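Support reply, case 0932

Customer input (verbatim):
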Amino acid sequence: MGKGRKKHVLLVTASLNLVGAGYPPFSGTPPASGGIPLWPVITPFVNGTGFGAQGPYSVDCGGSGLVPTPPYCYLSATWWMDLDQAEAAFPGRFLGKPLCVALVGRDFTEGSTGTLVDLSLTAFLLRK
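Our regenerated output:
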C-alpha cells in the first residue's frame, strides 16, 4: 500500500458476498440502528485503527423479488480516511508509516457457521 503521506486521503472500497445466507429480503441502503444489524457488516482497519467515515453503502439480500428468496446476500461499501486528521487523532500511526489495510466481515445470522463468504477490497491513496 505504501506509506501514509500528508495531504492525502485513503479510499477503501469493499464487497462481501454470502452464499447460503439466512437474511430477510432487502435491497438498498439499510437504516441506521442501535441494535444488532439485520444484514452483514464489513469494517476497514488501517494500522490497527478502525475507521467508519462510511460513504455509499448498499445491501442486496435476495432483493430480486424471486420466490423463494435466493440464498445470497451481497454488500458493498466505500470508506475514506483523511490521513492528516487520522494522524492528529493518533500521532505517529499513519504519516510516514506503511499503511496496512485490513477488512473484517461479520455475519449476524444464527447458524451462519459454514456459510461461504467472498470478501474483497481495493485501497487507493489519493491526493486531496
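We compared this against your earlier run and they match. Two observations from our side: The mean pLDDT is 76. The chain has one domain: 8-127. Please reopen the case if you see a mismatch on your end.
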